[in-house]
Amino acid sequence: VQLQASGGGLVQTGGSLRLSCAASGDTFRTYAVGWFRQAPGEEREFVAAISRSGVVTDYAASVKGRFTISRDNAKNTVYLQTNSLKSEDTAVYYCAARPGSLTTSPFPYNSWGQGTQVTVSS
């Protein structure tokens, strides 16, 4: 499956952005999807993940209560709603997909989007 991430931008502290991850192919519903982010000089870190059906979700502690992951399998798209953004949320955000169950580790994901930049200014 090929992924295209979009929706990033420049936003002030406390603002919101909705990131999208659009997938190609007709097997998207068989893939779990995760969002990861990477700030300059930092390692890629887990943000959120969603199961194939969308019933099960998982979040990093740093974003829980502020970010919401969802999916629309009819549109082959996963969303990440980011609210109450902080300067420490500034990073390139990547979506990734893997057949089977969701995981918080980036290594089992075998399809990655190109990333979308989120910059939060104070």
Report the structural category.
mainly beta
The total of beta strands comes to: 11
Measured by DSSP, the beta-strand proportion falls in over 45%
How would you describe the shape? globular
Q: Enumerate the spans where pLDDT stays under 50 for 5 or more consecutive residues.
A: none
Number of helices: 0
Largest sheet: 7 strands, mixed
Mind explaining what this structure looks like?
This protein is mostly beta strands and 122 residues long. The protein has no helices and eleven strands. The protein has strands at 3-6, 9-12, 17-23, 31-38, 45-50, 57-59, 67-72, 77-82, 91-99, 111-112, 116-121. The strands form two sheets. Strands 2, 4, 5, 6, 9, 10 and 11 form a seven-stranded mixed sheet that branches. A four-stranded antiparallel sheet has the order 1-3-8-7, with no helix packed on it. It is globular. The model has no long low-confidence stretch (mean pLDDT 96).
